[in-house]
User: Fold these one by one.
Assistant:
Number 1:
Amino acid sequence: MAISDVDIITYSGEINRNGYEAICNSLKRKKGQQALLVLSTPGGDPHAGFRIARALQHTYDNFDALVPRMCKSAGTLVVLGAKKLFLDDMSELGPLDIQVKKSDEVVGRNSGLDVLQAVTYLQSNAMAAFRSYLLELASQAGLSTRVASDIACKLTTGLYEPVFAQVDPMRLAEMQRAMEIAFAYGALLNEKSGNLRANGLEKLVTGYPAHAFVIDRKEAKSIFIDVEKPVGPLLELCTALYASMEKSTYSSEAEVNIYSVAEKANADTGESTQGTGAGEAGHATCDAAVGGSGETAAAAAILCLTSDK
């Protein structure tokens, strides 16, 4: 990967429609054939996350993703579109159990797994209760299997029927559809990136007990094929950009910037311009002559841009 072929895009803030539009605006300034996405987000709208990753896949031959610290929920969906993933020691991803708005509250969301796991738990316990009643009545009370099973059924029904009655079928269907969104979007993005292991998507959607569960680099390697720790200039880039992106990580107006790195013969002269702002894309160029991998070259060039800021 030549230096001139790399665009570095930074995205800091919630994943939402405004952020998607900011990404699209930044891509109008595309210079390279490949990109490095630096992402810092608590998550947000999965539909917008899919559109962001899809836009990058459509615009570039491929893109890699660098996570300086936090990339949760819909942010994890975005990096499913990346060919390679760079995670530092303090970086973390999150599960893809889609969040659904609570039906009885203006603010607050439930995981798409909540109702499904509750139903599974109740079913398991109801079956265990039935077996316990049946064995006790048949072996200790000396009742026939038919009579014991009839009594056990009535006891189990009386115990669990009020609980099952609280499960709303429409809510259950809503949660199921929410989970299918994550599966469908993840599969579509992985068609081009090809970075998910065989059971990686299923693990991301259903394999973790809480939406806030931390997926660090070691755990990520059980989900993704190509996961590396950033080293050298790329690690310096990771640290430097985290310091500048941290303040807008939780902002509803994402800060999006694009840096196009151009390689010229004379590395002693250079010009850089940068525009940043909520929902707006910045554009910068920096002359650099750096050897090594494409990631290393891109990192060195961005450090050139940020060193004087």
Number 2:
Amino acid sequence: MADILHLVPRAQPVEVWPPPPVRPGWHTETATEDHGPPADRDVAALRGQTARQIAHWGAAVEGLARPDNFAAPAAWASLENRLGLALRTELQRAVDRLRPKVCTLGAALTAAHSADQVQDIRRAVVGLRFEVQRVETMADFYGDAVNSLTGERLTALLGACDLLAVRSMEPVLAPLGQPVPPVLTYVDKGLGALILHAGVRLWDPAVVSPVAAVKVTRHNLLRPTALIHETGHQIALQLGWNQELARALRTAAAPAGEAVAEAWSGWGQEIAADAIAFAHTGYAALAALHDVIAGTPSSVTNILPGDPHPPATLRVLLGTAICRDWYGAGPWDDMELAWLRAHPAARIRADHPTRGTGAPTNPNAATPCT
């Protein structure tokens, strides 16, 4: 058996003659007088390779026009009609924007005569490639989300989540004349939920996200209060609440010093989403949040630079204070007592001799939450 694994040496080198001389005068920045102008064969070779690239990326564009390349037809069929139409329409718009570019490059290559002209077209093809990849990233993301609709039970549960998400935004956005975006809920692993906002430009600057895509974790599928936290992010983004609350928190915390004011200002978007989740689901939102973010004494008091989330201890205590303010005494009092026994405030300084402050993040990006 060992002899079989020995590689047999080649009888002769792969290259049996020297490669042709390089002509830097037409494809590098180091042209010299030692090399004459590009020969017809050089231009033809460059033209042929460029034509092949145009054909390849043109075919890739046509592949983007087929939704079943990204999700099974049955999964697309299980979507509510308005939701599926919004996704397919935006993908078709992206394809319709790319198709003329492919045709233009082909026509320009046909009309090109000099090596420099062909080189310019080749560089434009590289730009087209990046645009195709951006659209493909978008299509893959939504395709994966649609493909998570597997089985009648899961499809029904996620359809109910879609309805809950839309209903949570309607009473706030509709009276203010704001559009209520369709929602695509999908299930995935992990601890925290996630939203890809509707109406923002993400991978492709020319394509607007047509729906709010919300990830719901498997362990919280039957108590999806985090879903409402995520739609709270959508509401706050559309109405500009994030900036308004950040300013208010900064002003309120200013007496404690600039670092504290900066930290609370940076946590505004998560506090806003927590408040909206509480407005819709009450103590249930706090109970679900508690179970996800409970941890070791050091982890629940940790403040990471740039993290828009307040430390877990502040989020829980803020939630219990809101419950007490609205409802009076209740089970949240025992939650607060147990939390403080498990995570004594006196240990915070010892666990964290130094730590950074939170800072606002890009509100247009996907927002991971716990």
Number 3:
Amino acid sequence: MEWWQAALWGLAGGGAAAVVSLSAAVVSASYTWPWRKEGDLGPRMFVLAAGLLLGAVTAAAAHDQMRGPWPAFIFGVAAPATIRGVLAGVEVTPRSGTEQLGRRRTPEVVPGGDDGEDTL
């Protein structure tokens, strides 16, 4: 299979994942378009395009190991879900105003506390 064929099948897989995701969003929004209630269509189109691109790139990257369209399609379906799973563990918290970028905070010394040595 050529890289561009794998990329097209990966694109189709990414599109299939997007259709399933949109279908779930429509059902959870009481069978209405979810973007009519909350926010703009632009960010949703970005997420769709990112999923399609991820599906195409991952399938194209593995094109040498594929013999047919099915593995490329599965790569395309799995790529957005894999990235979503990886990002689910990322927590973003705002910085406090006292911290400066590039500086490490010094640990507080607590009297009678742990002196940093491990004892067994």
Number 4:
Amino acid sequence: MRFAGHPQQIAFLRPMRYYFYIDKFAGLNKEEAPPMCPRTKEQNERIRMQRKEQILEVAARAYFRTGGSFDVRDVAREAELGYGTVYHYYPNRHLLIEDVLDSGFERSGQALEEWMDIYGDSTDGSPLLAYCQALLRLWQADARAYLVYKMAAEHYAGLPEKDRNAAKRRFREQLYNPLQAIARRDDDSIDHMLAVLVGCCGLHYYAGNSELDVDRIARLAMQAITKES
């Protein structure tokens, strides 16, 4: 069989190039990717914790938008994770909310302990103002910590009845009583102070894009204490 035309027009049939294309088609010339090293146990644990933190933070914010009626699928979609991945950690919404609150209690307790270490022996009002500011900054950065106080203001009505009293008791023992003792108040002025803080911070979460005026809100909250004096 003969081919018409100039030899350059049939250069693709030269033996070397012909066999190159055959090899490429067969995968013989494909560059091999370096083998992937399996992750260590520590790496797997770090990934697991990061993913869990991501799920908890998204779930806390979903709580504000839905009043606690969100679904695990909603969390998976917003966290940009597969439903099966989130379901592996939390097969239902109640377990997820339980862990959200548990994490929020831990973070709030740490903030209170740090403040007590610095200001616990002071007798004037400036440390309490500093605590209000620190609490607002914590809430602004951490939806879980804010949710603990917000639900406390609502007497944890969003929880199943069997869990409600335990959450109330934990809040009073771990967060409310220590704050009341340091503020040296045995009336309801701490309730008023926290109500101002919770209400103003709520605007930040429900508006979605507003920034907290931490200093101004903290001073407003302190008026609930000073006016009782």
